[in-house]
Each structure stands twice: as C-alpha cells, then as structure tokens.
Amino acid sequence: MSAGEFNSWQTVQAEVLRRINSREWRPGEFIPNEAELAVEFGCARATVNRALRALAESGLLDRRRKAGTRVALNPVRKATLAIPVIRYEIEGKGQSYRHTVLSKQRAAPPAGIRARMRTEPGVKLMHLVTLHLADGKPYVFGDRWINTEAVPGIETADLNAQSANEWLVANIPFEGGDFTFSAMTAGPREAEILACKEGEGLFVIERSTWNAAHVITTVRLTFAPGYRMHTEI
Amino acid sequence: MSAGEFNSWQTVQAEVLRRINSREWRPGEFIPNEAELAVEFGCARATVNRALRALAESGLLDRRRKAGTRVALNPVRKATLAIPVIRYEIEGKGQSYRHTVLSKQRAAPPAGIRARMRTEPGVKLMHLVTLHLADGKPYVFGDRWINTEAVPGIETADLNAQSANEWLVANIPFEGGDFTFSAMTAGPREAEILACKEGEGLFVIERSTWNAAHVITTVRLTFAPGYRMHTEI
DNA sequence: CAGATTAATATGTATATACTTATAGTTCAA
DNA sequence: TTGAACTATAAGTATATACATATTAATCTG
C-alpha cells in the first residue's frame, strides 16, 4: 500500500480523505501516527501534520496528543456562513440601499435584553429601531440596543448617515458574537413596518457582539418575507 | 515599537489583532511583509506565516502573493454553524427521539427539484417524507429526494429503523453541500403534520449534498414553531 | 488495591533553509 | 497605445531538526 509519492499537504489530505471515504479507515478507528504516515507517503512529518490538522479543523478527524488521530465518529459538518453588512448585501444584488431611523432613545431595557447585555438594573442603553430598504422596499428592520458605556462616540455619531451596524463595525472592534436564527409570525407591528401581511412567516436573526469587557450591542433583525440566507460547504 | 518577544504563533496573532483593533494598522492598509514582521517579532517567518494565515482564514486579513497582506476592508464575519443530525440534536436536549416515514415512493421530481438534483427529465428518484418527533411531539419534517443511482443500497435500507439522513451520513461520503435558511408561513399541510396553527411562521432549512459525480440528495426541513438555530464566533 | 509517581509517546510547535508560485510592475515591441 | 514578455517580490510550501506538552500506560509505593 506504499502508494507512490504524496509530497504536498494537499495530496496527502486528498489521500487521507480517500481512505476515509473508501472505509479503508473506518469511523472511530485510529489511523497511523504522523511519523508512520510520513514514511509511507514519502514526505516530512510536518507535511502530514498540516494535512491532518486541516482535516481535524473541518471536523473529519479527532486528534489528541499521545492518544493519536482517529476518524471522527459523527462528522459534524460545519457550514461557515458569512454575516453580511446589510448595505453590501443589498448593493451586491444590484439594488439601491437606503435606511431610516424609526426611533432612537435612551431607555432601561426589558429584562430579556438586560440579561443579554449583562448590564445592571436601571442602567440605560441606547435603543434604536432602523428600517433598511432595497430599491425603496422594506428589506429588514433592526431593533437594536447599544451599551453606550462600551461604545465611546456613539452618542455623537450621525446614525442617519451611516447605519448603526456599519458605524459599529467600522469603529468598535469586537471579539466574539452569538447568533440565533429563527422564524416568527408577523404581527401588526411587523406587518406595518415591513409592508407585509399579518400572519406571514418572517426570518429573524438575533445577534450579540462583545469585546473583552462588555456586551457591545444586541440586535434583532426581522426580514421581509422571501428572505433567504445561503451558504455552501 | 520592537515589542519584546513574540515567539509563538498565538502571541504573534494576538499582537497583530491588537494592532488591527487599535487602528495602528487600518482597514485596507498593507501591513509589513512576513520577513519584516519576523525580524520585528524576533521569530521565524514560518511562525508569522502561521499567525497571518489563521487570521486570513477567519477573514480579518486579505493576502495575495507578491501583493502582500492587508487588513480586510469589510471584515466578513464568518460564523461556523454545525449541521446536526436531528437525532443527536434532540437527544442532546435530553428528549426522546422518534421518527416515522410518512411516505416513500419512486417518482419523477418536479422541475425545481430536478434542477437541484441535476437529473435528466423522466428520471425517477426516491421521494421520502419523514417526521421527526421529540418527546413524542412533532419537531421537524423532511421532504427529501434521493438520487438512487448515486446511492447504492438505499433501496434495500430499512429507513424506518434509521432515518434517511443518518443512513446517508453513515454510508455515503459527500464532498460538498449547500444550505439555505428561510422562513415560511404554515399552510394546511404543515399545520397538520407539525400540529401547529395555520399561518404560523416556520423555520426552514433546504440542503443539498453532492459528491464528485452526482447530487446525492436534497431535503427541505420544516421545523415546528419555536425552533432556534444557534451559533457563536 | 488505591493512589501517587514516572516513563513513554503522539501531537504540537518553533526554526533555518530552500525552493515554488502567483502576480504587480516594468520594460519592450508592434 | 495596446499588449506581450520579463522581472522582482511576497506569500506558499517542503524539510530536517529540535524541543514542548498533554496524556496514556506502566510502575512504584503505602
């Protein structure tokens, strides 16, 4: 089985993939260690390491020091989906982009938001409701809370000129975020804002972003009917 | 600025991140090349390469040969979301899992499906409708088409014992897939199958998977109200 | 025999060196 | 002035070597 020459990490990766797919190496099974594979493939261990590391990152292999490398039992397929800035998404489709601020005020958030923002009771946040339009038609509206303490400069920013999301992306570095995707049924408010019928199913993204010290912002994006989010693996 | 010692790729990465976040290196701007950074950080070029490559993969840097490395202008944040096998997802919540096959037949698919499956007109596929239940309550139902030509053995598989998805994951290696997430409004059929009210908003995942030669399967998963898909970055 | 100690081992990482490859920029020719 | 040919450059990769680190397995103790 000393198959020819696999002297680039891509060819090594391809060969390992082939063996996994052909069940030569079965799920849960340990595969030979890096040193052995390097000899068999006629390449350096670092090359094997690169190939296996990439496969482990994509979820097909499980690796542990000393224990070794095994074919993943239940390969969790990971789709990486790009989170777009709404303006780019709309303009990318060749449509015109516009947004309007429906309301902007300082207020103490309801309990649910406060929990997500991890702020003390009574602390006021900036509450912003924005509608984004594609070719003049409602596309998505965002109900956003911003921790003004974590975001110096937001108070004086002109959020009519640049949407809060864009302003934040451009000005406030963040370290992590979480995303929830779901569906909701349009009520009177959504129907009015998005110019759709009450009772329609709407796609919803909830997103929080944070840095080391604070939760920066949490936003709920409710999309007009027909929105589709797409990704490939 | 010859800042101390950055002699592991993680510390190099952290320092580069710091400079990006602090705007020392601004979006769109070229950063010094690997060799220069290696000298400045007091480490090998390979170490810098590892750090920058990781940052490029996560979308914060743009790299091109000869041109160099620049800070990404619009950092596309990528969330990697794990595509779960439904049984694991349900059992992971501590609920009991059960599934039933509502219908299974060979049929020529409608045009939309045929386009996705890339089959010739008249070719019959396996059409499978399955309901998955959590603690006995409808959780999601799947409307699936399988290219039997691409999937040897599926005809004789007992899809009552093991769901089609699980059978496929365990038996048919695939190379790529695409995913679409959207919302729909429950019609009479969805309301009946999912035991929900007509007019409720439902979360929908459409997914196709393929290997080198064929589109293997395409499935539309319609979730009962309340479903939320979550991910972090 | 339970629990602590030690050894063995596979992956993880760092480094110097060398070569490859894509491509931006320049030069040259039609 | 366009475009083809060339060149210089920065990232990309491969390799040998060395050492670090996590973790299993074996061994030693009480």
Average pLDDT over all residues of chain A: 93
Instruction: Work out the oligomeric state of the chains in this entry.
Output: homodimer
Into how many domains do the coordinates of chain A divide?
A: 2
What is the helix/strand order of chain A? Answer: HHHEEEHEHEEHEHEEE
The biggest beta sheet of chain A reads: 6 strands, antiparallel
Radius of gyration of chain A: 24 Å
Q: What's the name of the CATH homologous superfamily of the largest domain in chain A?
A: Chorismate lyase-like
Low-confidence stretches of chain A: none
Beta-strand share of residues of chain A? 25-35%
End-to-end CA span of chain A: 31 Å
Query: Structural class of chain A, please?
Result: alpha+beta
Total strand count of chain A, please?
Answer: 10
Molecular shape of chain A: elongated
Per CATH, which architecture of the largest domain in chain A? 3-Layer(aba) Sandwich
Most extensive interface, chain pair and sizes: A-B, 46 and 47 residues
**In the CATH hierarchy, what is the class of the largest domain in chain A?**
Alpha Beta
- From the 3D structure, determine the CATH topology of the largest domain in chain A: Chorismate lyase
Helix content of chain A: 25-40%
Number of discrete helical segments of chain A? 7
* Side-by-side strand order of the widest sheet of chain A: 4-5-6-9-8-7
Describe the structure.
- The structure is a homodimer of 233-residue chains.
- The first copy, chain A, has 233 residues and is an alpha+beta fold.
- Chain A has 2 domains: 9-71, Orthogonal Bundle (Arc Repressor Mutant, subunit A), CATH 1.10.10; 86-223, 3-Layer(aba) Sandwich (Chorismate lyase), CATH 3.40.1410.
- Chain A is 27% helix and 34% strand.
- Chain A contains 7 helices and 10 strands.
- The first copy, chain A, has helices spanning 9-21, 34-41, 45-57, 86-92, 111-117, 164-171, 188-194, and strands at residues 61-64, 68-71, 77-83, 97-107, 125-134, 137-146, 176-185, 201-210, 215-223, 228-232.
- Chain A has a 6-stranded antiparallel β-sheet. A two-stranded antiparallel sheet of chain A has the order 1-2.
- The radius of gyration of chain A is 24 Å and the shape is elongated.
- The structure holds a DNA duplex (30 and 30 nucleotides).
